Amino acid sequence: MKNVTDSFVSLGYWPSAGSFGFNTDIFSTNLINISVVLGVLIFFGKGVLSDLLDNRKRRILNTIRNSEELRGGAIEQLEKARARLRKVEMEADRYRVNGYSEIEREKLNLINSTSKTLEQLENYKNETIQFEQQRAINQVRQRVFQQALRGALGTLNSCLNNELHLRTISANIGMLESMKGITD
């Protein structure tokens, strides 16, 4: 540090008349050159540097402002998307509940219609069984009646002779004439 101050102080002691020479002390001359360059840069570069910093500051502020606007827009879009999501979820829940209700209702309708169909089939089956039983009973009765009639005719034919046959016919004719007389 002492060398620096000595070099500035020694400038005042240089003889100004007649001699010109080179200063071979590198440290003292570089320091002087650097201080002159820095002084010129500060004096002339102050405005340029100030303008550059102001422009940079404006760009940063504009970027921040644009970012805030974009952030606000993004938040607004996010809220709209959330509202739509809530609406869609509520609608999906409503469809799900309605779908489950519809499925249950269709299931009950199917069970009821199947039950009714089974009941009708059971009734048809019972009616068919009763009809077939009645038909079988009638067929049996008819055969029994035919056999009884054949047996009775066989018995009558074997037991009746001509005289008994004529008396039966006469008795029947007499009954018919008496009935005719009553109705007249």
Automatic annotation (TrEMBL):
Species per Swiss-Prot/TrEMBL record: Dischidia acutifolia
* Gene this chain is encoded by: atpF
* MF annotations from Gene Ontology: proton-transporting ATP synthase activity, rotational mechanism
Miscellaneous field: In plastids the F-type ATPase is also known as CF(1)CF(0).
Summarize the subunit comment.
F-type ATPases have 2 components, F(1) - the catalytic core - and F(0) - the membrane proton channel. F(1) has five subunits: alpha(3), beta(3), gamma(1), delta(1), epsilon(1). F(0) has four main subunits: a(1), b(1), b'(1) and c(10-14). The alpha and beta chains form an alternating ring which encloses part of the gamma chain. F(1) is attached to F(0) by a central stalk formed by the gamma and epsilon chains, while a peripheral stalk is formed by the delta, b and b' chains.
This one is known as ATP synthase subunit b, chloroplastic
Secreted recorded as keyword? no
Out of the domains of life, which is the source?
A: Eukaryota
One Pfam family it belongs to: ATP-synt_B
Plastid found in the keyword field: yes
Which keywords does this Swiss-Prot/TrEMBL entry list?
ATP synthesis, CF(0), Chloroplast, Coiled coil, Hydrogen ion transport, Ion transport, Membrane, Plastid, Thylakoid, Transmembrane, Transmembrane helix, Transport
Can you tell me where the transmembrane regions are?
31-49
